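Please predict the structure of the following assembly.
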Amino acid sequence: MPRKPQLICPAGSLPALKAAVDRGADAVYVGFKNATNARNFAGLNFTDQQLAEGIAYAHRHGREILIAINTYAQAGRVAEWRKSVDRAAEIGADAVILADFGLLSYAYQTHPQLRRHLSVQGSATNFAAINMAHECFGVSRAVLPRVLTLPQVEYVIKNTPVEIEVFGFGSLCVMAEGRCILSSYATGQSPNTHGVCSPAGFVRWEPEGQRMRTRLNDILIDQFEAGEPAGYPTLCKGRFEVEGDTYYALEEPTSLNTLSILPELIKIGVSAIKVEGRQRSPAYTAEVTATLRAAIDAAGDAHYSVKPAWQDALTKVSEGHQQTLGAYSRPWR
Amino acid sequence: MQLTLGPNLYFWPRQQVLDFYADVASWPVADVYLGEVVCSRRHEVKTADWLALGTDLAQAGKRVIYSTQALLESASDLMGLKRLVEAGGLIEVNDLGAVEIARKAGVRFVAGATLNIYNGPALDWFAAQGATRWVPPLEASRETVAAILAEKTCTIDTEVFAHGHLPLAFSARCFAARHYNLKKDDCQFKCLEHPDGMLVDTREGQHFLRINGIQTQSAACHSLYDDLPQLAAAGIGYLRISPQATHCRAVVDAFAARLANASASTDLAALHPQGLVNGYWHGKAGIATQVS
């Protein structure tokens, strides 16, 4: 019987961290207030003191804190990233989540006792890449980019000693994480370099009568007619014109939701299920954590089915109120 | 500095590919990258054909480098790569899994732009695995590349993506199939109808992106042509020109002429109706254009 996977929940603040612990997360992932963090948004994230308090709180409840240092160290400033790894070790984090191979090498040599997870930003989509990170840096867990089908995830699990963590819920990157620079093409800032995608500082909401236009660094990403809810202009989720058709050329605004396939994820041996959304509110973290906790606990039952109440709870917090199984089921395959 | 011809990112009919490379044999490029890097469903030209083309180009005096798929997902993707590595010759790796296969085989390689090398220690690590040349991330500026080179301790050649539509993102999903409401596994090879990809325009008619199967590119052409005179001083050894269906020879000739004589000047803008950009190299948004 496969082990029940850990539930890994996001926190961009101390109240969100506590909410995740209270509602049943096995581990909470967080980041520092600096460029080492792929959710480096104003008003988010943790000071050292807040983090120390959060770690104490989690440990008191028998849960873990994982620190994401998951942007790429920028040349000339490598010391900032190394210092963040040092701080994570000093402060008693249970693991660091890293993407940069230079930084993985540093962490392995300097803090061998500090567990290392390969971030989704590390963009390892196959067992060869993951086994290399295991052999070279002692990586014990890898987070898979959201590009693989269920059989492909299973194939990875069968061919690696590394624990595999997959995304279970949250906003969906349609591109392979770590291999998308659309954001810097439009704005100069990307997840790899600045820890941001379609950054808020470049967003303009431009009302015109009943119509709302959304721009990113002046580029028109979408426009919404009266009565249409206007969404944030994440640039891969805008409506564009291709050969005379105007549509969501790359992806609809939608959230990943794996409630219906949790038994399969458990069966193929996934070690951890991750919730996206460190940029979201403590209320989001609480709602999603409680729902996923209940669902994962029930998913081992032969008669498992998705409860309408769970579905309702997740729909309320989904992007564009739409959900998909993403690459796992590949309806577009 | 020497010119290289990057791997063809598009899907062309077999005869067009063969004709293109027959012509390339006489172009002023030192290195030619061959192979399919975007989509595992593209089989107009098979591995054996690529190897035969490589033999022909080597006889014409080109150094041939086999470039490998950028997003390795399936068992067959990994097997295909292994075959290429075992065939010998130089390879370009564009996926971490390919690094693992190359280093285990003891093969030297070019570390491609999607390996995310943003600092000296990372570059040193890839060099230790067998990289003899690297391509900085496309979003890296002149200053960033200089900072990485200043920070590294290894000996390695540097090649920059100097001209072409920028490959900006890779996905499991095929956006060409999506456009035609087809499933990826039954895509009817629609990419064959778009030798330079499909333009994605904003609703104000701004040319923004370009769909190339699972890859999303810039609509505009990134070009360091205007920056050529300063590039040699930046420690760059190789300049990559990315193949395009039209005017490719003219672009290569223009770069070669300018390398030979800094005062040579060709109006490349006239050959690129969706515009020229160079923002990344100047530390700005990639879509920006900075006039030197």
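DSSP finds eleven helices and 16 strands in chain A. Chain A has two domains: 6-172+254-328, 182-247.
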